[in-house]
Design brief:
alpha+beta; Aminopeptidase; seven-stranded mixed sheet; 4 helices; about 40% strand
């Protein structure tokens, strides 16, 4: 597996492919719900490639000068539970550290909170978002 920091259009297309396959097709999420105002030509994505094929992605969003948010985490179904998600998040964290952020936030689907906790994130069950497609729990990690 290989990590790709997707900043060019052709690389971002790989991120979009994974999101369409994993979320739009996999969870029947409408395109206009999966893609929002944070997706654009300047958006930073991390993509995991397996023999050149995109299999996982996330986007990095700046909250403030000290905090970055990892969003839209997607691993294609056939690549789940084999370390791909960990590889993806660790790749995103490395890029975030290089940018000198001090904290990372992830709003996790409720069933995935344990995955993030194993990676050092702390869940705050007082911050729950039920307004979207999934129920999401706020998690954070201090770098």
């Amino acid at each position: 597996m290989e990590i790709l920091r997707a900043t060019k259009t052709w690389q971002q297309a790989a991120a979009y492919y994974v999101r369409v396959q994993g979320m739009v097709k996999g969870f029947n999420i409408p395109l206009n719900k999966e893609f929002d105002e944070h997706d654009g030509p300047d958006t930073e994505y991390v993509v995991v490639l397996d023999k050149g094929f995109p299999i996982a992605t996330c986007r990095i969003f700046k909250i403030d000068d000290e905090t970055a948010k990892i969003e839209r985490v997607v691993v294609l179904e056939e690549y789940r539970k084999n370390g791909t998600g960990r590889f993806l998040i660790e790749g995103a964290e490395e890029w975030i550290r290089e940018k000198n952020y001090k904290k990372i936030v992830i709003t996790s689907r409720d069933e995935a909170v344990g995955f993030y906790e194993k990676l050092g994130y702390v869940a705050d069950y007082n911050k729950v978002d039920k307004g979207g497609v999934f129920t999401c729990i706020y998690t954070e990690k201090i770098l």
